[in-house]
Amino acid sequence: MTLPLLGTGRREVAPGAVHVPGWLDLDAQRRLVTACREWARGPVPARSAVLPGGHPMSVRTVCLGWHWQPYRYTRTADDVNGDRVAPLPDWLVRLGSAAVTEAYGDAAGDGYRADTALVNFYDADARMGMHQDRDERAREPVVSLSVGDTCLFRFGNTENRSRPYTDVELESGDLFVFGGPSRLAYHGVPRIRPGTGDPRTGLTGGRVNVTLRVTGFPDA
Ligand SMILES: O=C(O)CCC(=O)C(=O)O
Ligand SMILES: [Fe+2]
């Protein structure tokens, strides 16, 4: 299947879901990796969130702005060490706004102010099952940035976890934005492609993914 090309390198995977390959240059990727490493150390360390059935997720996650645990947001990381998560830095908020403009064109990102980021660390065997991002109250787009190993990203429909879906290879530096009619689409990461990343990003293995979101919860 050929996906519609929206402009240089932009592909609409589903209405409101846009993939922009190679959006972050190597330098931006490197800076993002350095920042993610720092956030993973604390004040709330990266951890595998435990699902309600008792199983830990295979990805390790650290949150900024708001802390996410299955399936809610809080200011303090009550399932980790009780500390308040690090604030979402302004440069990342601005990057989110630029990403929305890149994906949708015009000045679409002007009013976009993310207030949380989930930073996911994938090793070669990590996966993420099909899910919706629906713990936010707001329905602003989700902005996803990837660095390191390529992954298979499965972008589905809003009804259920199964077909129809579109498989996308998310490579290092890629941007993926999903909003509008695709905001509540199921999506997941069935596999990582070990050894595909460029060590010059600062990652010698694995994959880092940052999703920026607007929770819609009032500032505390
Ligand atoms: O790693 C990815 O590309 C997706 C991450 C994701 O879906 C999430 O954090 O909710
Ligand atoms: Fe998600």
UniProtKB/TrEMBL annotation:
The note describing how and how many cofactors are bound reads: Binds 1 Fe(2+) ion per subunit.
User: What is the annotated signal peptide range for this record?
Assistant: none
Name any GO cellular component annotation: cytoplasm
Name it: Alkylated DNA repair protein
Tell me what organism the protein belongs to. Answer: Actinocatenispora rupis
Gene name of the encoded protein: alkB
Q: Which GO terms describe its molecular function?
A: broad specificity oxidative DNA demethylase activity; ferrous iron binding; oxidative RNA demethylase activity
Q: Does the keyword Metal-binding apply?
A: yes
Membrane-crossing ranges are none
**Which GO terms fall under biological process for this protein?**
oxidative RNA demethylation
InterPro entries assigned: Alkb (IPR004574), AlkB-like (IPR027450), AlkB-like_sf (IPR037151), Oxoglu/Fe-dep_dioxygenase_dom (IPR005123)
In this chain, Fe cation is annotated as bound at H131, D133, H187
